[in-house]
Amino acid sequence: MAHEHAHNAPVAYARHFAIGIGLNILYVIAEVTFGLIANSSALLADAGHNTSDIMGLAFAWAAAWMATIRPKGKYTYGLRKTTILVSILNALLLFGAVALIAWDAVEKLKNPQPVAGTSVMLVAGIGILVNSLTALLFYKGQKTDLNIKGAFLHMAADAAVSLGVVIAGLLIHVTGRMWIDPAVSFLIILVILWGTWRLFAESLNLALDAVPRHINIEKVRDFLLTREGVTSIHDLHVWAMSTTQVALTVHLVVPGGASDAFISRLQQELSDTFGIGHTTFQVENKDLQVGHCNGGCPPNS
Known about the structure:
With 301 residues, the chain is α+β, with helices and mostly antiparallel strands. The protein folds into 2 domains: 7-207, Alpha-lytic protease prodomain-like, CATH 1.20.1510; 217-284, Alpha-Beta Plaits (2-Layer Sandwich), CATH 3.30.70.1350. It contains 8 helices and 4 strands, in the order βαααααααββαβ. It has helices at residues 14-38, 41-66, 82-110, 118-137, 146-175, 180-207, 217-225, 260-274; strands at 2-3, 232-240, 246-253, 278-284. 36% of the residues are buried.
């Protein structure tokens, strides 16, 4: 049995999270202050919504930190999978935000109300800046890490909502049509759902130990079968240990046996070709899978 334990820590985003949370705390304070001065329930309600986004950023930060904790005790893989669980949590929080936006939009369709004054649109404009800057902090990382992607989508969604408030306010000021406000809200809902559903589905797949989306399991199988000395393989499993780390286990049938150099080279090739950094091989002189699953082996296992 050969093991590769190069546990690369995820990219450090501590400073990004600290800046993002700090900016949003200041923005919430501004919303509460202007909301009380302008007697705007809309601003106070949005302050509550943004408070939940601060919690979402905090959860993502905590998960990123927990993923760096070394394995110990019964947690033999460490706490890396918390990044996947928090990705699901962030997706659920976004779905909740969508439900609140939809509820508010429907109420405005039933009972059209004048858009709040200039101070509200001014604060919303500040929200565009704050949330866009925070989202940009996570733009690069969200392409490869679902946990970071959850944080990015949270802030991008808030920027879109703030932009919708400003646009709706200007259009209503020009046309006098109150239905524009809820109509813009529904457009924002569609944009948020498009990104959030992909985040939720992919996170759920990883939580169920599905093969990560960026890895083609058949190509991995073909690659292993073409290695010198390998006559067959079975019990190939590829799954995500976290939102950035992938593991593989497989039984390799190598009649002549396998040297340390062969194992080391194979580990490096899997890392370079597929990004699989944690590999475990069982090398067998002959195929030992007969009866291994008691008749319950899945096809092509």
